[in-house]
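Fig. S4 source data, part A: sequence.
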Amino acid sequence: MEGFAVVVLLAAGIGVVIFALWVFAGRDGHADDEEASDTVEHAHLRRMAEAGISSLAPGAIRLAERERTGGARHPAGPAREFWRRFAAASASVERDPAAALDELRVLPGLLEEALRDAERGAVAAEDASRREKER
């Protein structure tokens, strides 16, 4: 009786393996082609979004330095909006690169505006510091 159970279990195991191979081979690759095209498009958009974020990094570093030295003239102004959108675009690069690219269309203009505002704030802070020293 034990020998019969072993044969049945062996036959069931072989049947499962054959069924798995049949399902795997029987897909014909149609589903894989559709998934692959989505994956290729997603990867392409992700690379474009990553390049866009990288291109803004030097300006973002300058903005951070300007904010640290003198601060923005308008704390709730363009710098804050830039950082909010920059963070959103950076966070969505992996999961939704199309949304990141949409954000990236606006960011260069916001960065320039924020840099101008921060530069004016830094100049104003330097002037105030100079006036304090003169007293």
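Fig. S4 source data, part B ends here. Helices lie at 2-25, 30-69, 78-95, 97-134.
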